[in-house]
Amino acid sequence: MARHEVRLPQLSMGMSDAEIIDWYVEEGEEVALDADLVEIEAEKARQVIPAPVAGIIRELKGDSGDVVEVREVLCVIETPA
After folding, report:
1. N or C end of the chain: which has fewer CB within 10 A?
2. Domain count of the chain?
3. pTM of the predicted model, to two decimals?
C-alpha cells in the first residue's frame, strides 16, 4: 500500500492558511478519485478540496474550525501499490 498526503493547496497568491469548515469523509472510508474530501474557507471564499487519488482515508488532520497553513497535510489516503 502507498500513502498519499493531501496538502492544503495555495488557491490564490495571498493565501497563507484556511479554516476547515466540514469534512465529507471519515477515517477508514473508501473514496473515489475527485470525491469531495473537505470544505475550507480562505480569504472569505469557501472551496471544496477533492481527492487527488482513489483509496482509503487513513488519517484526518484537524477538525472543523481548525486553521491550517498552506502545504500542511489535510489527510492521508492509502492506495493499492
Report:
1. C
2. 1
3. 0.92
